[in-house]
């Protein structure tokens, strides 16, 4: 008998429609290919230098030293421990930490918390729980790119990107755009908009939502019986802007700190936080859903949480970190100081090279930069319009061995914009800027 050979189309055709869609998306998602060839001065000097991934490397040595000296592992990490929604010790330490740093109106109790292996899993679980396939969640532009897959890939929900035009997406004036987007979707499809999701502090704009805007969103959600999800993963990465000293800055205010009951049914309010950003620990894969008034959500997660079980090692490491007040207080303060200095350094580099960037940020660890405008200055024959223009610059940057996040993936309404991460040592930023400038000088 002849051997059975694999055809180019046969196995693909045996996939479900979901699986085929994932294949199509996977061929376009090159981020993981990029980070498999990451630059390192000793081990991979010819690799790609990343200022595109939202990783904070400024205090990695400090965190590793703490883990080495303080983490005490027990045999429970080899078991299912207290179940798939996080150990008792972990949820107790998270509640303790949130009560100290988020100023909650109602103290956060361990039974308000659902632990997941990162906030992506948390968002996917909420999408699956709140939205039927084809129903929608509102997300204002620009947005954190991975929200799209988190919300839609497996839950089969729909993300409605709210176009803002010239309206500041964090301002109260944006409220009308949310309502218009909801009405348009429902009239066009006959399906419901079930939720609004925020990233506060905002990724990629690096600013905090003012109270007036959040209040308006709560009122809108109450009037339409929609859930309000506040992703606060950058909550403690708020710092002093040493560059834009003449701009008033909005401080961060957690949704947990508000008495929401006068504006919205508290059962519709959910907050997310995790270790990835404020502690520079993306690899620990620890996230949390804090929902203080919706016990049925907690019951639903008992079914889903098996797929987002935090590893025993990460569980015990995180519990150790978050219950140590002296360490976390010092770490947060030092991190904020370093972010402030790194932002100032990158802003000075951008000014020196004449690259426009969005002023007025004081949170997160990225700048929204207009590399396209600089490219047109260097190459006046380019028109600089549309997705193809941003793609062309992105390809040139990758060819120049530097990764900067593509603005179109973040819902940018204008061509040529990118997200540039500055939470790295200063020589790293210098080398990244040198590579950017070399790449865009090429015709």
UniProtKB/TrEMBL annotation:
Transmembrane segments: none annotated. Residues 52-436 form the Aminotransferase class I/classII large domain. It holds the Pfam family Aminotran_1_2. GO terms for biological process: amino acid metabolic process. Keywords: Pyridoxal phosphate. GO terms for molecular function: pyridoxal phosphate binding; transaminase activity. Belongs to the class-I pyridoxal-phosphate-dependent aminotransferase family. This is Aminotransferase class I/classII large domain-containing protein. It comes from Penicillium egyptiacum.
């Amino acid at each position: 008998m002849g051997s059975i050979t694999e055809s180019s189309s046969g196995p693909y055709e045996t996939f479900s429609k979901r699986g085929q869609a994932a294949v199509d998306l996977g061929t376009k998602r090159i981020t993981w290919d990029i980070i498999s060839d990451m630059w390192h001065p000793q081990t991979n000097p010819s690799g790609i230098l990343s200022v595109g991934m939202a990783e904070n490397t400024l205090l990695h040595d400090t965190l590793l030293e703490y883990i080495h000296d303080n983490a005490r592992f027990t045999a429970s990490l080899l078991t299912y421990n207290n179940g798939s929604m996080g150990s008792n010790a972990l949820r107790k330490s998270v509640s303790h930490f949130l009560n100290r740093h988020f100023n909650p109106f109602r103290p956060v109790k361990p039974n308000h918390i659902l632990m997941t292996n990162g906030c992506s899993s948390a968002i996917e679980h909420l999408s699956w729980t709140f939205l039927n396939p084809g129903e929608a969640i509102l997300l204002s532009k620009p947005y954190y790119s991975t929200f799209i897959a988190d919300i839609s890939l497996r839950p089969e929900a729909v993300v409605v990107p709210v176009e803002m035009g010239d309206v500041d997406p964090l301002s109260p004036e944006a409220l009308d755009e949310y309502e218009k987007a909801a009405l348009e979707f429902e009239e066009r499809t006959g399906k419901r908009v079930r939720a609004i999701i925020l990233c506060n502090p905002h990724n990629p704009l690096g600013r905090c939502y003012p109270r007036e805007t959040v209040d308006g969103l709560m009122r809108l959600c109450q009037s339409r019986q929609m859930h309000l999800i506040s992703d606060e993963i950058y909550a403690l990465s708020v710092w002093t802007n040493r560059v834009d000293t003449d701009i008033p800055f909005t401080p961060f205010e957690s949704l947990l700190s508000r008495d929401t009951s006068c504006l919205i049914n508290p059962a519709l309010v959910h907050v997310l936080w995790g270790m990835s950003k404020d502690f520079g620990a993306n690899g620990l894969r620890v996230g949390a859903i804090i929902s203080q008034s919706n016990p049925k959500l907690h019951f639903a997660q008992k079914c889903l949480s098996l797929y987002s079980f935090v590893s025993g090692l990460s569980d015990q490491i995180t519990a150790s970190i978050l219950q140590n007040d002296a360490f976390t207080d010092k770490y947060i303060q030092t991190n904020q100081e370093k972010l402030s200095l790194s932002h100032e350094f990158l802003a000075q580099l951008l000014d020196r090279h004449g690259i426009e960037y969005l002023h007025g940020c004081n949170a997160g660890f990225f700048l929204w930069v207009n590399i396209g405008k600089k490219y047109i200055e260097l190459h006046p024959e380019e028109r600089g319009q549309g997705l193809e223009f941003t793609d062309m610059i992105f390809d040139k940057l990758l060819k120049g061995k530097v990764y900067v996040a593509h603005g179109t993936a973040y819902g940018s309404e204008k061509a040529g914009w990118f997200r540039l991460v500055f939470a790295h040592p200063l020589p790293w930023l210098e080398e990244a800027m040198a590579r950017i400038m070399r790449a865009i000088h090429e015709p």
